[in-house]
Amino acid sequence: MFFALFGAIVVVSLATSIAVVRFFDPAVYKILQRTLGQDLADAWRRYVSFAILVAGISGGVRTWNLEQYLPPAPGKGAGQLDLTGPRWLLEMWSTLTETLRSIALVMLLFFLCSMMAYVIARALEVRRRKEMALETSEDSASGQEQA
Q: How far is 132 from 17, CA to CA, in rounded Å?
């Protein structure tokens, strides 16, 4: 019964992670294209997808919680819990929510870093425009003095 629970938890966690990767893939790709360019966007999209999968599975499969369903080690007084229907439902729900929570943290970190990169890129763009406008006005002013 323990192995069935473990397998079900892995499947729920993996399916949830894959669904989230597919849901966020277009947005992640657009953000990466805007901030990194076409060449790097494909590679980073794969990395972000991998990070989502790893975070989702590692967050959803909580091995320390599953240990309560194993027989106790010799010399320890705590007993093992029975795997009843309500426990299965509770474990599946916990797996789903913990998977989503772990993915949400990864996505929050990704979007914060992306927002910072966007702000820095915009600031550099504005600075470059001001420098070009200043150079253009200086060139036109020196052209008028020569005339």
A: 47
User: Which two three-digit tokens encode residue 130?
Assistant: 């001001």
Domain that holds residue 72: 2-118
Give the whole-angstrom CA distance, residue 90 versus residue 144: 80
Residue 68 lies in a domain: yes
Reported as a single tens digit per residue, the pLDDT across 6-55 is 899 999 999 999 999 999 999 999 999 988 888 889 899 999 999 999 99
Nearest partner of 92 among 23, 21, 19, 10, judged by Cα: 10
Give domain status of residue 132, yes or no.
no
Closest C-alpha to 83, from 70, 96, 93? 70
- Pull the structure tokens for residue 39: 């060449």
Evaluate whether residue 139 is within a structural domain: no
Q: Report the domain count for the chain.
A: 1
Under the banding of pLDDT at 50, 70 and 90, the label for residue 95 is very high
96 domain residue, yes or no: yes
Tokens of 44: 């980073």
